[in-house]
Specification:
The chain is built from 4 helices and 5 strands; from the N terminus they run H-E-E-E-H-E-E-H-H. A hairpin with a 2-residue loop joins strand 1 and strand 2. The protein is an alpha+beta fold.
Length: 151
């Protein structure tokens, strides 16, 4: 099935001016769109393709607001375009991933999948980056309880 995936990548690469784009001998390919690096891996000999991109590292002092924003985006794929967001516990790395079945896909289908993935990665990275600022704003604002006491 890697032949079909490679045909999609080659046709996609030709449309981008990247002649000879294909999976390497390990079934891997990597593309960069502005600030989004998209890793592309075949899943064995199947028609499945794994797309993933790093969103950054969740620092120990990121606070619950960062996790909340990412979980809200992940809820029913609301902000991820069908992808999921995950946390690598030992490293704190946050990534967005999506498994795509390339069977029967044409290059325009593949282009739409990649565009949606890049858009989702950009919007989730923005949430990730905005979370510390939002947490600082929330910390500066009085709580509802304090507002109630002060009248």
């Amino acid at each position: 099935m890697n032949d079909h995936i490679n045909r999609l990548l080659t046709d996609f690469g030709n449309a981008l001016g990247l002649e000879g784009l294909a999976l390497d001998e390990n079934g891997y390919c990597c593309l960069s769109f502005d600030d989004v690096v998209v890793n592309i891996e075949s899943v064995g000999d199947s028609s499945l393709v794994l797309l993933y991109s790093s969103l950054g590292v969740l620092s120990a002092d990121a606070g619950p607001e960062a996790c909340r924003r990412l979980l809200e985006a992940n809820y029913f794929f609301h902000g991820t375009g069908g992808a999921t967001i995950g946390l690598d516990g030992p490293t704190g790395g946050v990534a967005i991933t999506r498994v795509v079945d390339a069977a029967g896909m044409e290059v325009l289908d593949w282009e739409a999948v990649i565009k949606a993935f890049v858009d989702a990665a950009e919007s989730c990275a923005a949430l990730f980056d905005a979370a510390p600022a939002a947490a600082a704003e929330a910390a500066a604002a009085p709580s509802r309880f304090e507002q109630f006491i002060r009248g």
